[in-house]
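Run log, item B.
One chain of 529 residues. Sequence copied directly from the ordering sheet:
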Amino acid sequence: MKDENVLEKRVMTQFQELSGIRMEWNGNRAILDLLRKTKPRVLTEKGIEHISCGEGDLRSDNLLIEGDNLQVLTSPYKYKGRIDFIYADPPYGTGNKEFRYNDRWLNDPNSDEPSDYVKEEDGGRHTKWLNFIAPRLHLMKRMLKPSGVIAVSIDKRELFRLGMLMDDIFGEVNCLGIINWQKKYAPSNDSKHLSPTTEYILIYAKREPFAETRLLDRTERMNANYRNPDNDPKGNWAGSDPSVRTWSAKDDYGIQNPFTGEIHYPPPGRNWGHKKLDMKKWLEEWGSSYVEQSDINRTAKMLTLKEDMEKAKDKAEEIYRRGLWPFLYFMDEGKGKPRIKRYLSDVKQGRVPMTFIEKEEYEDILEIGSQSWTHEQSGHTQDARKMLNAIMGGFHEFTTPKPVKLLKKIIHFWCPPYGTVLDPFAGSGTTAQAILELNAEVGSRRKFILIEEGNPKEQQYFTRTLTAERIKRVITGDWDARKHPPLPGEFMFKSKGKAIDEQAIMNMQKEELIEVISQADDNNAGRTS
């Protein structure tokens, strides 16, 4: 009892340090006890080897595990703290046979009895959903590397509760952003108010300073904005605003245009973004000397021409005609506003996933914020259903697949080319297909671990007949009249067995036994990471 109290105090302290809020609901105080009670399971391939795909040494790199994800997530000890990226697509809350729950789980998380669907009219549906998702998020966090990132899909029904819970478990400071993607491109005519055409993906790092977001490849359209009208030996460039979004009196001053004599100031609330000595040097590269002069409009002195305006204009126009303009130039053949050259060779060789995706020019380093993706950028659910029907021949009952395009995009952002992706709500196996396609397209070696139970009460072999079969067909190319080439890859299929006991240990192979001993030690000594 003393050890448990110390453990709980340590966990609570960690949560309070990470988050400025604490969520309370009926059942949340039992979550830590539930995690302690959950027993690791034997993960076995015996008797189901035929479901696996491939015979090479790399087959075990990719895993598809059949079983309840709460119980399975406690079992593969060797992956604890080694996952690069987690994509989770949990049930969204209520109605339409989406979410199953049983109150027994809070007392007996090791029960294998199937549960019932939570109905939309159930007054405790949100509490049940929190009791379902909270312990799984704790276990997912435990699986991540310090540099790991988790992305959780959700819709409006549980969006705000999930956001608060993620802040609570992962810490508000580790929130990288929220993706808003267009799942439908046409409104629902039966909607009384707003038509729900978008869903959300919440992105959190385990430790934000260690996380990395990879860039999208630059497009031809983006690079087309860079030209070289003055034959600059540094190559193509584009004009960029020389001011920055901060303000101080000393950097808010006027500069005189050598072509027109006009005094240019930074836009309101902004400063020149370079040192005054550098600004003076670049202005003088137009052929005339500059001096500081008092300005009745500003506290800081402005930079003005030292010599006759006509002479300065002749020199500037000659340099303009000759080419190789200074770093600070003036638009409209010298008659316009000041700009600076932004060289393509100096621009980040990729796009930062930021702001609305239709604006495709990103020149400066930007923070990741809320991101809106049109269906052209992410794919939509109709595309996803068509693809699943093409692969499976329409013989399935899965109605909510995610677009492969969407999964490829977020995996590219947050899983390194040789990293491992965990999907604890694998569904039809979209994550595996996305990884296999990415590997084939860019030569990466990303690996996957998928967990899926299906619904044993209604469709006992869902994971075998849909998830595993889809991945097999994608690997072999045996779908859609073989119009698609095979994709390099293999996977091992395992099933969740009984809770680990004496008889189970006696039947284990050496490698399994080592893993179980390590897991048992971890369960006793380190359940809080």
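Observations after the first pass:
- The chain has two domains: 2-213+368-525, 227-343.
- DSSP finds 15 helices and 21 strands in the chain.
Flagged for discussion on Thursday.
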